Amino acid sequence: MVDSLISIAVEKFNTILQDEVALLVGVKNEIEKLFETFTSIQAVLEDAESRRVKDRAVKIWLEKLKEVAYDVDDILDEWMTENLRSQAAEEGDGSCFSFIVICFLSPLTCFNHVMFRHRIGSRIKEARGRLDDISKETRQLGLSVASGERERVDSEVKKDEIRKRETSSLVDRSSIVGREDDKNEVIDLLLRESSQEVTEVPFVISIVGMGGLGKTSLAKLVYNDEKLKGHFDIKMWVCVSEDFDVKRITKLMIESATESACNLESLDLLQSRLREFLHSKRFLLVLDDIWSEDRRMWDELRLPFQAGALGSRIVITARSEKVAMAMGNIHMHKLEALSDEDCWLMFSRSAFGDQSAEERLELKEIGRGIVKKCGGIPLAAKTIGSAMQLRRTRRQWELVLESETWNLVDVMEGILPALLLSYYDLPPALKQCFAYCSIFPKDWELEKATIVKLWIAQGFIGSDTSEDMEEIGGLYFDDLLRRSLLQDAEMGSNGSIFSCKMHDLVHDLAQSVAGNDCLIVGMTQQANLNLNKVHHSFIFSSSMFEVTSSSSTFHKADKLRTLLVSHGSRVFPPKLEMSLMKQVRISICLHKLFHHLQCLRALDMTGAKIVKLPRTVGQLKHLRYLDLSYSNIEEISAGLINCVNLQTLILNACEWLRKLPREMRKMISLRHLELERINNLSYLPKGIGRLSTLQTLTKFIVGGNHGVDGCDLGELKHLNLLQGSLDITQLQNVSSQEEAREAELYKKRHLHTLSLYFNYPTYGEEVGDEEKRRTEGVLEGLRPHTNLKELKIWSYRGSKFPEWMGDPSSNLIRILLYDCSECEQLPALWNLPMLQDLGMFGCPLLAEKYKEGGEDRPRIAHIPSVRIF
């Protein structure tokens, strides 16, 4: 991980050293000396990393180096931030000479500017002194430059190599071997009518074994087996993990059974609802990954199960037999290690890839030796097999077989040596990204887009002229999946990877290599919590008040770079109920919090019951990621515009949000602005079109209300990097086709979903001929790029649709029309080669023509899904 930190600093060195005008001579000399020292230390890092497990002195040396690297990164980032603020001032004033003018009018500003650089120079000199001391210790520790005997992947991830592997990189989750007998035995128990049936408690089958044996995989095979179809009335799958919370688990059972969100909050109501669902029904419940041995918790959880019919079954997976015994009426199925032959089969599927039969034969004997050391653990065989794909020579395989890591006892607190070797095999950038994932609790759903944005916020991902950071981050994520360090990939609606999970054993590895860097607070009682060396923290909390009131704890957390606060389910956030008095109190606490957390790069307060961010948020000069989704926030403080590094601002489902900062155009680093399900925001601040780096803008509001002068469509003209989804609302405010064309939607080639809202006040309201023609012109001018996949149109009042909707070169897959009450005819949608879904809702004139039996129905008969309501 340290090598990645140093790489980040070196990249910033290079950027700053090019700033010849801004650099004072003394500062430049200090930076050059620091750069040289960093480079010399970087050469021995590979040796140090391989010795850190066994040699405590080396481990301490690496910790000291890491702290200096973090401090240097902060210093260099402050320098670059100062330059960004100058650029933001120029952007806001619209003049490239603004700084010169300011200096002429205010000599104090120039003086402060020079003093800032002197202070930075002094801090760099102090850091270099610490680094020189660390450098001297390399000889005492006997650290040396890697001889090349142990080969590793290059210091940077070569993106073109990743792409070549990408075609066959994802592991097939269905390729489970050696578990057919186990599956049949468990299924037989599920289907068998037993004399041991107890009316009060369903029969429980526990799958028990150490981490990595494949307990969850076996449970999934059983749960989805064809033999169970029709046998159970209700099937439920719940991942329990370490947090055995009866209310949470009961809610998840209801949601699994009904496939919909449950908004009940009290345990009494939840258990009553579950009892109703289960009444006289035969059910199958899988409780995956149980840790709690508390029999009282189980007794409370099982109360609603008594309503189920005889033959109901519960399957649990657990590492401990004591956990299983706490469940009472059970059959325990102990999962054993795989045979050498099955383990070899799993290993070879991952390891050999496209190698020829001759190559496989040459490596087979060595490979079987490696498999032998995996101890029959499927996860170990699969993971080390994935790592071996990159090694093609006999000597490379022999080096893995002969590695001292296999001989370590209880290495890294019980982490399997095979997994540790897989970590060593990661390139430096991926090591940092992998370790960072340990900030999330076990079984947490790691959403790909969110993880990538957080990696970018921490500076783990660089960029070049050909690709942006999000694309590179996506490749990193996919590579971790390919290496089996992430698993259970879930696909999004567009066919790409949406999320993954991390196996418990791999999570233990990530926590071990992260050390003090990452800390999860709140899952268990933690006495004398010390955050003074923690850089990334995830906190479970029922309210921000609980977090911020522990002021003494956070006074010492001045090195914290990530603070993620969980207020409940990420999918179904809790109802936000709090008195105004408490909310004001929270705002005061945040003011104190921001004063101490000056190094923050990422802050997630999803579901926080806060009304307004204090102006002191502008003091967070390093801040790059801010998520306030599902909060009670009403107004974003103008202080936020001082966060010129901010890349991601997420405000989804902030129901009370009314206003964004007026000078938002100064936030020149902004790449993602998410505004989904925001109903009270009536306008966007003028100048948002200057944020040319924007890739995500989920909502664009045309004009303003109540006399407010908002954005016109022309602001979209230069935002050609926009991707994903875009909602354009208040289109009734657009005056003409020419104004609509100024948005240049036809240049937005990365958008896949476009929703157009005309926002007429009354459903079905008739409009005059002139208004119809104006509206038709507006829609004509909004022609999108042919790459668009989904188009939605709301409350359109024209008599006809534009011809571009029927363009044969279009890639549209779905078209949905809502309340288009004046339209009488569809364009030539039958010419669209990719169209799979057409929906018309509240479109009476169209419904008459295109419904079953309608005169024009044959024209759209080839479309697989046609819905008319």
Describe this protein with a few key phrases.
alpha/beta, Rossmann fold, 28 helices
Question: Could you characterize what this model shows?
Answer:
By secondary structure, this protein is α/β, with parallel strands linked by helices. Among the domains are: about 140 residues, no CATH class; about 160 residues, Rossmann fold, CATH 3.40.50.300; about 80 residues; about 190 residues, Leucine-rich repeat, LRR (right-handed beta-alpha superhelix) (Alpha-Beta Horseshoe), CATH 3.80.10. It has 28 helices and 23 strands. Helix 15 runs parallel beside helix 17. The longest helix is centred in the first third of the chain and has 38 residues. The protein starts with a helix and ends with a strand.
> Shape, please?
globular
Strands of the largest sheet, in order across it? 9-10-11-12-13-14-15-16
**Number of β-strand runs:** 23
Distance between the termini: 57 Å
Beta fraction: 5-15%
Given the helix and strand composition, which structural class is it? alpha/beta
Kindly state the mean pLDDT as a whole number? 80
What is the CATH topology of the domain at 682-869? Leucine-rich repeat, LRR (right-handed beta-alpha superhelix)
Residues in helix, %: 25-40%
CATH C-level class of the domain at 682-869 is Alpha Beta
CATH structural architecture of the domain at 682-869 = Alpha-Beta Horseshoe
Task: Count every helix, treating DSSP H or I runs of 4 or more residues as helices.
Answer: 28
Which residues sit in consecutive blocks of at least 5 with pLDDT less than 50?
Answer: 94-111, 147-173, 409-414, 523-527, 542-550, 568-588
Report the major sheet: 8 strands, parallel
Query: How big is the Rg?
Result: 30 Å
